[in-house]
Design brief:
heterodimer; A: MetI-like fold; 12 helices; B: alpha+beta; Rossmann fold; OB fold (Dihydrolipoamide Acetyltransferase, E2P); six-stranded mixed β-sheet; five-stranded antiparallel β-sheet; 20 strands; about 25% helix
């Protein structure tokens, strides 16, 4: 009996296997397409940065230049103007990151561990600041920054980005701290820690993945910001990288190789940062992995 | 080694009163177990001694000092938590050394103490590991080590064994007992497990709804319960507690009557709650001369060395015991002997013991 049934079963198994392979192939094809769409602009940016301007729009388009042409990089790296864009971006990015981590963590510690009058309203208020479209705030911010005498200074940018980054830092860090059981606080209190000691010595080491992913986000926010940087600064030596890149359009004609070389240089910190910490960022987003 | 005096301790959470005036006096070196169902206030009491909860009323004294206003680290206590609360980012060594480091003790002294305690608890090979790489029992020992290195006046244990499996719990229970014999510290130990309470305690405090139900030695609590609650809470399987009617010759339970002596204060016709432990209900054949009743046996639980015999008496489901080798059939009536000399009588209204 079983002899008769077997061939039919075998055919069915083969069919199923074939279907499974097709499905796999389709999934891979879709993934490859999406990856190509995502990666192409980056490849094109690198490609253009390595071609002389005359070759940029040559037909048919070539991804690999005929000869590697490093002039764009040489120009951008030696020009003090571009160096100042980079330095400004680093100063602003690092300052915003450091300040928003310190202030955000302290605020989050308060929200997470203490009940006080108006704590829920305050927390809600922090979250709602994230809901306002930033562009509507441009004019008011301009007024405030001018009023404070911070127009066309890096401090003006730092302060502005801080107001964007802080709510995010507070909410993120609050989330991480909430996943850490209060028993740690109590054990540390009995061991002789002050409340601040509890935060610094016990909670922060546990919340490290959260701190890192918050820091990366904050840095990227400041590094990539364009609109406010354009509106709140005027002089060349206060500009940041995104504004610097945009200015190459009008002022120097269209030097595609320089523009793209600078874009590559501007993207590098972001790429490197992400590669170094993507483990934490991904782990951090699915918080709750912290457990005694 | 210090005495602990808890006087008229009150805890309010807003309008809700969690503790209604607790009085406990613990002698130096005594092992005191607070036991009761969840929500009875035992953990709250412990946390107030530790300084983790504010004191709404009353007084706590450790040694000669009233500690109401002192911070936890000033109270001379160390605490072991239910889920250990080991610092995940620190090694076992640093977990144990942390409190000493905070008190700015010289490094060589810290090292000496940590290694000595690690030796006692057999943690020496694990000192460089992180808590994540330890088993449940090892974490439990580190948590105890962290408390011991501080050489505190008082140890506080908050349900330390409830996260362990049954076998490990038995081992750790013995280890805690041995540790107490060796260190002779005063201990307050909170648990909901009456076996832990019986085996570990010098003094058991049974709590219920924020009040002390009864306190005393394990013997006194087990053999001389003051209330229905205490009688039913201690012992496994629990004491049989049944509503009875007093008759001139004994008790009437549903349709059956049992001849026995009743306390002098009880008149015939009075209602009474009679308590009798499963141990005191045995097959009649083993117990000549005792009050017997033939009852339908509806379930038998084999525990190995003994069997639990479930039977019905009137409205009540009751449990008796036989040896593990006695052959009993479920569903058949069987004569059981009741050792009424060890029966307890309680007032059904006040639930207090009638002696």
């Amino acid at each position: 009996m079983s002899d008769i049934v077997q061939p039919a079963q075998a055919t069915q198994a083969v069919n199923e296997e074939r279907r499974r392979r097709w499905r796999q192939a389709a999934i891979y094809a879709a993934l490859a397409l999406v990856t190509f769409v995502m990666v192409f602009p980056i490849l094109w940016m690198i490609s253009v940065s390595l071609k002389p301007t005359t070759e940029t729009f040559s037909l048919p388009p070539r991804l690999l230049p005929e000869t590697f042409h490093w002039d764009g990089y040489a120009k951008v790296l030696t020009d003090p103007k571009f160096r100042s864009f980079l330095i400004n971006s680093y100063v602003v990015g690092l300052a915003v990151t450091a300040l928003s981590l310190v202030i955000g963590t302290l605020a989050a510690f308060g929200f997470s561990r203490y009940r006080f009058f108006g704590d829920r309203v305050a927390k809600l208020f922090v979250i709602t600041t994230q809901m306002v479209p930033t562009i509507t705030l441009l004019i008011p911010y301009f007024g405030v920054i001018v009023f404070l005498g911070l127009y066309d200074t890096l401090w003006g940018l730092i302060l502005t980005y801080l107001t964007f980054a802080l709510p995010y830092s507070i909410v993120m860090m609050n989330g991480y701290l909430d996943t850490i059981p209060k028993d740690f606080d109590e054990a540390a209190t009995i061991d002789g820690c002050t409340p601040l000691g509890v935060l610094v010595r016990v909670l922060l080491p546990v919340a490290l993945p959260g701190i890192i992913s918050t820091a990366v986000y904050t840095f990227l926010l400041a590094w990539n910001e364009f609109l406010f940087a354009l509106a709140l600064t005027r002089s060349m030596d206060m500009r940041t990288v995104p504004v610097g890149i945009s200015m190459m359009v009008g002022e120097f004609g269209l030097k595609w190789d320089e523009m793209m070389a600078f874009s590559v240089i501007g993207s590098l910190p972001v790429l490197i940062l992400f590669m170094l910490v993507q483990r934490f960022v991904v782990g951090g987003l699915s918080a709750g992995g912290v457990k005694g | 080694m210090s005495r602990i005096e808890i006087r008229n301790l009150v805890k309010m959470y807003g309008a809700h009163q969690a503790l209604h005036g607790i009085d406990i006096s613990i002698q130096p070196g005594e092992f005191c177990v607070l036991v009761g169902p969840s929500g009875c206030g035992k953990s709250t009491t412990l946390r107030m001694v530790a300084g983790l909860e504010t004191i709404s009323g009353g007084e706590i004294a450790i040694g000669e000092r009233v500690v109401n206003g002192l911070r936890p680290k000033e109270r001379g206590i160390a605490m072991v938590f239910q889920n250990y609360a080991l610092y995940p980012a620190k090694t076992v060594y640093n977990n144990m050394a942390f409190s000493l480091q905070l008190s700015r003790m010289p490094k060589p002294e810290i090292d000496r103490r940590v290694r000595e305690v690690a030796d006692i608890l057999e943690l020496t090979p694990l000192l460089e590991r992180k808590p994540g790489a330890l088993s449940g029992g090892q974490r439990q020992r580190v948590a105890m080590g962290r408390a011991i290195v501080r050489d505190p006046e008082v140890f506080l244990f908050d349900e330390p064994l409830s996260n362990l499996d049954a076998k490990l719990r038995g081992q750790m229970r013995a280890e805690i007992k041995r540790l107490h014999q060796r260190l002779q510290n005063t201990i307050i130990y909170v648990t909901h497990d009456q076996v832990e309470a019986m085996t570990l305690a010098d003094r058991i405090v049974i709590m219920r709804d924020g009040k002390i139900e009864q306190q005393g030695t394990p013997d006194a609590i087990f053999h001389d319960p003051d209330t229905v609650f205490v009688a039913g809470f201690m012992g496994s399987p629990p004491m049989n507690l049944v509503d009875c009617m007093v008759t001139p010759t004994g008790l009437k339970l549903g349709d059956s009557e049992i001849a026995c002596a009743t306390p002098d204060g009880l008149r015939a016709g009075a209602r009474v709650i009679c308590g009798i432990r499963p141990d005191d209900i045995r097959p009649a054949a083993d117990q000549p001369g005792r009050a017997t009743a033939t009852v339908p046996v509806d379930l038998i639980e084999q525990l190995g060395t003994e069997k639990l015999v479930h039977f019905r008496a009137g409205q009540h489901s009751m449990i008796g015991k036989t040896g593990g080798r006695v052959d009993l059939a479920e569903g058949a009536p069987h004569p059981l002997a009741f050792d009424m000399a060890h029966a307890y009588f309680f007032d059904p209204d006040t639930e207090r013991r009638i002696r």
